[in-house]
Amino acid sequence: MESEAAPYIGMLMAEFCQVGLMIISKQAMNTGMTTFVFVSYSNALASLILLPFSLFLHRSNLPPLSFSLLGWFFLLALSGCLAQLFGYIGINYSSPTLGAAMLNLVPGLTFLLAIIFRMEMLNTRNITCLAKLVGTIVSIAGAFVVTLYEGPPLLKRLATLHTHQLSLRGDQMNWILGGFFLAIDCVMASSWVIIQAIILKKYPAELIVVFFYCFFVAIQSGIVTLIVERDLSAWSLKPTLRLLAILYSAIFGSALQVGLCSWCLRRKGPVFVCMFKPLGIAIAAIAGVVFFGDTLFLGSLLGVIIIVLGFYSVMWGKAKEEKKIHAGHFSSMGSPTQTMPLLENYADEMVNAAA
């Protein structure tokens, strides 16, 4: 019999995997490894890992492919590739803590894009819609606070494994640049959500979609890397930390985390999975202070709290909306709401688009 605690353990492991990816990628890039090379290698390996699993799981119900679908896969990969590149660059300029905090902007930004593309209707008289709108505005305000306001230090360095490393807000311009790149990452990740929602309606085989996503990202980033990085030594996997980072990204950052989130999503639903996203901020902050000599400032704490409040406001509105949708399906007196529940796939999408 399946343990009731299993989904909670699964989501805890998934959050550790994601924060671990942010930390190890930053350390790998500190050795001189470029973002382009890292994205190329990690997605190429992830596609090799996902190919046999996706074919095995969908062997009996594999939908037919078409040239149009491959075009959609390419577009999905392009948005995801840009999200990964901007995300890793942002983390390299700032810290995994800021990266984990900014990820909570994705639900609100997805809601705004859904309104722009008429996939959701804006009705300020509706409490659920108002909650999502206010939550989005609050989250964006929190992102400005965590990026632009420093304040006094709260938790100073507890360890200095890398004595040359700056404090968490030691270089204010780099921190602001990191926040800017991470904001672009969140916009691209939200676009990725919109595109995947369209694709899954046409091709309901999630793992195959993820395989093609990683495959095309590897090709796109590889071409860009060959153009940008003329020196072939940039592809070197020495020191060993680079190879370990790529292996971690492919195995734990893609395959394992996707599997854990999908498993929890099927058993507990999307709201349960999304509720664990802010936990990554705490994990990243503790790891930064304890293991990497970071300093936690008041501005970071206030900004994170504001972002999380906005995040939960969006998710509360979405949960209420889903409850009305389900009630509409069981009611013979009315019709269900005509909106697309984009955040239903948010758990899986966050794993692949923003890590």
List the helices and strands and how they pair.
Elements: H1 6-30, H2 35-57, H3 67-93, H4 96-102, H5 106-116, H6 127-148, E1 153-155, H7 172-202, H8 206-228, H9 240-268, H10 270-274, H11 279-291, E2 296-297, H12 298-329, H13 346-353
Antiparallel strand pairs: 1-2
Helix pairs in contact: 1-4, 1-9, 1-11, 2-8, 2-9, 3-4, 3-7, 3-8, 4-11, 5-6, 5-7, 6-7, 6-12, 7-13, 9-13
Outline the structure in words.
Helix 9 packs antiparallel against helix 13. It contains 13 helices and two strands. The chain has a two-stranded antiparallel ribbon with strand order 1-2. The two termini are 33 Å apart. The relative contact order is 0.22. With 355 residues, it is an all-alpha fold. The protein has one domain (7-353).
Backbone structural class: mainly alpha
Order of helices and strands: HHHHHHEHHHHHEHH
**Distance linking N and C termini:** 33 Å
Task: Tell me the number of helical segments per DSSP (H or I, 4 or more residues long).
Answer: 13
Q: What is the overall shape?
A: globular
Note poorly predicted spans.
Answer: 158-169, 332-355
Question: Can you give me a brief rundown of this structure?
Answer:
With about 350 residues, the protein is mainly α. The protein has 13 helices and two strands. It has one domain.
Key terms:
355 residues; mainly alpha; two-stranded antiparallel sheet; 13 helices; globular; disordered C terminus
